[in-house]
């Protein structure tokens, strides 16, 4: 097509709107700071929420258009708006709206006092949205690196020694993952002459996978790349240290948003290979899923720090959900989104509870900010906080009728329906194992006496603010009454997944 023949209508710029809004918001915040510095952080919180709600509105509009006309392409067919892109962006933006008010706390954790914090946060959201709203490997890479570079800085801004260490480790592992992604993309391009996943699938299928050896090499590099982002074993080594070095809300955010973006890209990339009956890919994914679930649970059993325990818990949940990509049915893919929506409420709520129990300075003899001993007898000093934290632990353990029970049941059901009965048994067994370390924290809170050394360490009332109460209240209500919303969420998700052809 001659450049002069390109019309604005043909670019379908509406597909770009959800990603552009947070980027404009980030630039707007930086411009405000250039002209008037030193403004209160509550202004930046409000501006961030404003642009996120605008982003959410743009997604609602995109969802309406998708329901009417199906998959949309735009901007020279680089942007792809389908059901996967819409649902995952709802999770990304929704979790971000849920996260931002957590920074409205006292100023001793000062990173949120800088406007750059909120600008980087919005840049990160835009990057993740670009990742999920395309099947172009170059744009996926651009979105991945935009989000990752912002995230490294956000972690380092917590300004503790462990935060700098966490940021460096995450940066190093992220750089390695980016290299693996680039190399895998190069092989796919060399084999097919395309960088679009749908086109790659068509070319490889037309060639009857004549270069299967090179395809498998590319798959290994891609699996390694997204294994880092999803913290799948053996690519998980960064996760516990990064979670421990990050602020509790950021650790909770890390366990949700970057992973849903990586899940969607993995779904686009690996499921066409599984549908082509490439057994080797299925075997590798099967082993990865089982080892990730099992080993993460075993490591979580021996942790003495609650935040590190939740880090290994998040690794195990990622392995559990990765089973959906292995099963590769519409029911399994719908289960993935249902599970992650319910997980978002529960896990971010649990990390928010850690945030309100934080300390600026550690008492003598206390090696970490969130060890189990710190929560001994919490029910006697802060009974409401202990009850809410116990609720989140029970939900993470998958006990009925709390939120994640329904996600686990539907995921296990999809495994049985898809013919993976042994995998379903392994998933159920791992859920039982996980119950031990979640109940361990409950035992400390409800069945142990507060020690003198830690009696003053958990000062809930001085840390909690109205915004924190609101967020924790929403998470609590969502966790308890999830059973009322499971069917509507499932119907919504399944309709979008099915219409996208997954």
What does this structure look like?
The chain has 502 residues and is mostly helical. It has one domain (3-499). The protein has helices at residues 8-11, 17-35, 41-69, 83-99, 115-132, 137-156, 161-192, 197-206, 212-230, 238-245, 248-254, 257-275, 279-301, 306-327, 330-356, 378-381, 383-396, 403-417, 421-447, 460-463, 466-480, 486-499; strands spanning 72-74, 79-81. Strands 1-2 form a two-stranded antiparallel sheet. Helix 4 packs across helix 22. The longest helix has 32 residues, at 161-192. The radius of gyration is 22 Å and the shape is globular.
Short description:
It contains 22 helices and two strands. It has helices at 8-11, 17-35, 41-69, 83-99, 115-132, 137-156, 161-192, 197-206, 212-230, 238-245, 248-254, 257-275, 279-301, 306-327, 330-356, 378-381, 383-396, 403-417, 421-447, 460-463, 466-480, 486-499; strands at 72-74, 79-81. Strands 1-2 form a two-stranded antiparallel sheet.
